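Researcher: I'm comparing several assemblies side by side, and this is the next one on my list. It has 654 residues spread over two chains. Same procedure as the others: predict the full complex and return the structure.
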Amino acid sequence: MKKTSRGGELALIETIRRASDARAMGRVRLGIGDDCAILRPPSGHEVLVTTDLCLEGRHFRRDWHTAESAGHRCLARGLSDLGAMGARPLAAFLSLALPAGTDGKWTAGFFRGLRKLADEVAVPLAGGDTAQSPSEHILADIVLIGSAPAGEALRRSTAHAGDLIYVTGRLGGSAAELISLQNGAEPAAKGEHPQLFPVPRLAVGEALLRRRLATACIDISDGLSTDLKHLCEASGLSAEIDLSRLPVHPLAEGRIELALHGGEDYELLFAAKPSLRAGLKMRRSLAGVPVTQIGRFIERGRPLMVQIDSHGSRKRLEAGGWEHTFV
Amino acid sequence: MKKTSRGGELALIETIRRASDARAMGRVRLGIGDDCAILRPPSGHEVLVTTDLCLEGRHFRRDWHTAESAGHRCLARGLSDLGAMGARPLAAFLSLALPAGTDGKWTAGFFRGLRKLADEVAVPLAGGDTAQSPSEHILADIVLIGSAPAGEALRRSTAHAGDLIYVTGRLGGSAAELISLQNGAEPAAKGEHPQLFPVPRLAVGEALLRRRLATACIDISDGLSTDLKHLCEASGLSAEIDLSRLPVHPLAEGRIELALHGGEDYELLFAAKPSLRAGLKMRRSLAGVPVTQIGRFIERGRPLMVQIDSHGSRKRLEAGGWEHTFV
């Protein structure tokens, strides 16, 4: 116990306060500056909560990810969880611990990246906590609060045998870009950056819920094979995946293992009744995002996954082949 | 990127799942196991959110705090924020990063401490996140979600000139016990442990709100002088504190500076109209907790704090004399 200045922490709180967006505060009755924030969810809605750690050395590296990317990715992780349940975001909360002597430019870049994405999806930063990191690592925990009409949030456990399996966007791009960064490549100035700036599928999730298109949904954070396994186990079903249908990201061309196991794509993986296949929008895109049918759920004694190649050969699909580590 | 086992993380999630309390899940429609948890706040209520970092080396130390204490303190920090606004807790969320090779006994003790307090106040642990810590430090972030009738949550900014200033419980005990621990003392087997096991004042906060007794409220996490300053600045008022009235904790006997600046007492500091003074309960206790009038708010050009000693001498009271550091 000793006398210390809290100047650094107060300055950080001030930065967060500026990053919070007063224009989007309609549902935020009280933001930063009291013991709690106060949110007013829409009438008849339930409240959805997700928290995600974003730790330097685990979830990002300062030599691979720019400060903007670290801020963007932190918020995107939480938003993607809301999207997976079809929820509408209400507010974000950030707990952030910076090492002593962290470059102010890094902090500003982090908040710029976070704020840009927050603005795009109109999510106010309504609070959080700050501390000095006890090590040389930047530590963040992002909390997203959202809402959905009572009883209607999309879940993992509600797929049925016979439902078709869909995925949004393209897979494997995030892992492919990470491998490039690991190999020392400069990020391309143009084009998509699925690793540095993944796009959470909030609008697709909301559309799936509103139009009652999906019977179950999850986001692809750990890789298609791992997250499909979560859907299978939660719903008590097995799944068949047609490898020839997998929408492989251009950055991962020819590397189907990245599309199957790569992780951090933050696309949505969902189940839908076969009767919906005829709908053109469902087959091709939803809320402007490509949607591809990649397989189907089947009944079986014990949940397992099967991959079918272009010749019709069937092989067991194992989950979680690849995991990102940043150490 | 490499192939890794997530066994440790999955085991930790299983521990958290067991620590979550199915009996108290009435307001938790969906707990651990999906992309988000789903909460259903009482009709007509707003939602309150607070997040608090609990970092080893900043907020606790393994050689001073037992594992049970670390778990208890983590949850108590968040609950105290809800209590300060008069909110009723709905659910807690824990993000926890453990260093590789953390003793399983420590983890079990942490959850035992957290769970015991959670049971006492009937707060289910409804989710969170886990990761491996990038350093040798245990990292936790606790999120508490609560609710209060719309527009009625207690705030810092709503005190009036002439309101009396009250505090619950006794002050300085937490700092006094910390100093003992720093000096190598074993925690006493009997008696209160205001540092190791602080008691969040949820019932008092709820009573203040329900009975409309308080005009403003804050919890004492940073020390009376610092948190009183927050109340003064938020309400645009000055304050006079009668030192002779301060309820000094027995552990801090004769050390009034610990009662003024000690921090981590997690008592409530609130303002109330003078017309309430006649009420016996208000003068002596509330929800079974002693309540003491220690001063009054006054109008002044610029918010400042004055301390008045037993001889009537007045002196400027400066905020934040002491801050706990654990490094």
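Model: For your comparison table: Chain A has eight helices and 14 strands.
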